[in-house]
Amino acid sequence: MTHAVVSGDSLTGALDRLVDRVRGAQFAVVLSPDGLPLGGSRHVEAKLAEQISGVVAGLLALGLAATRTCDAGGLRQIVVQMSRAFLFVATIRNGTILTVRIAGDDVEIGDMAYEVALFVGQAERHLPVTLEPASAARSGDTGVHLRHR
């Protein structure tokens, strides 16, 4: 039996499990479509979540520009390779964004890519976020709502 990667339990718990499954994974953060942090794995404090939000906003802008320029369909994932780490940014169909950092000398990038794809594929069905059309949003309402199960 296959278990859901993201289920009705805590988003933090789901992100912790994602980080725990891949050697070298350091943190995972889920952002709303407008870049607000919705949840993070253990050890993700507000300051880090805000910094990641800003970085991801810039990466997404570049990625979306590349998809328009290359006429290659929708943006699915961005991978940034640094000298000592990788940053994975993946879009989820409901508009949310997953970001994972992995670092170390013996990391398995393929394992992380697989886990990110698995998380994204299951998150679109199970992530506790629903989006309302902008026309339905009330004044001051972001249109993003957490579902409680």
Notable characteristics:
single chain; 149 residues; alpha+beta; two-stranded antiparallel sheet; 3 helices; disordered C terminus
Order of strands in the sheet with most strands: 2-1-5-4-3
Largest sheet: 5 strands, antiparallel
Low-confidence spans: 131-149
Calculate the terminal CA-CA distance, rounded to whole Å.
Answer: 22 Å
| Strand tally | 7
Order of helices and strands: HEEHEEEHEE
Q: Estimate the global geometry from the Cα principal axes.
A: globular
Measured by DSSP, the beta-strand proportion falls in 15-25%
**Number of DSSP helical runs:** 3
CA-atom Rg in angstroms: 15 Å
Helix content: 25-40%
Mean pLDDT value: 81
SS-derived structural category: alpha+beta
Provide a compact summary of the structure.
The protein has 149 residues and is α+β, with helices and mostly antiparallel strands. Helices cover 36% and strands 24% of the residues.
Write up this protein.
This protein starts with 10 loop residues before the first helix and ends with a strand. The protein is built from three helices and seven strands. The C terminus is likely disordered. The chain is α+β, with helices and mostly antiparallel strands and 149 residues long. The strands form two sheets. Strands 2-1-5-4-3 form a five-stranded antiparallel sheet, sandwiched between helices. Strands 6-7 form a two-stranded antiparallel sheet. Helix content is 36%, strand content 24%.
